[in-house]
């Protein structure tokens, strides 16, 4: 599942928990959203690092 879908899933859990008064479900939803943001940031860092690596390879050629 991609980070965007994980954020949506987390938001749904959070809102469901709020509506039903289920604090644990609400907390799980918030946690899922944070995990998705971290995953998204890590993916961005990886892509940037790959871009730098590729540009360095190109410069050496």
TrEMBL record:
<dbReference type="InterPro" id="IPR036629">
    <property type="entry name" value="YjbJ_sf"/>
</dbReference>
<feature type="domain" description="CsbD-like">
    <location>
        <begin position="4"/>
        <end position="50"/>
    </location>
</feature>
<dbReference type="Pfam" id="PF05532">
    <property type="entry name" value="CsbD"/>
</dbReference>
<dbReference type="InterPro" id="IPR008462">
    <property type="entry name" value="CsbD"/>
</dbReference>
<comment type="similarity">
    <text>Belongs to the UPF0337 (CsbD) family.</text>
</comment>
<protein>
    <submittedName>
        <fullName>General stress protein CsbD</fullName>
    </submittedName>
</protein>
């Amino acid at each position: 599942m991609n980070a965007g879908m994980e954020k949506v899933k987390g938001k749904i859990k959070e809102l469901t928990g709020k509506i039903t008064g289920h604090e644990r479900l609400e907390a799980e939803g918030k946690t899922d959203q944070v995990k998705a943001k971290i995953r998204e940031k890590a993916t961005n860092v990886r892509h940037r690092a790959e871009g730098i690596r590729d540009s360095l390879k190109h410069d050496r050629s």
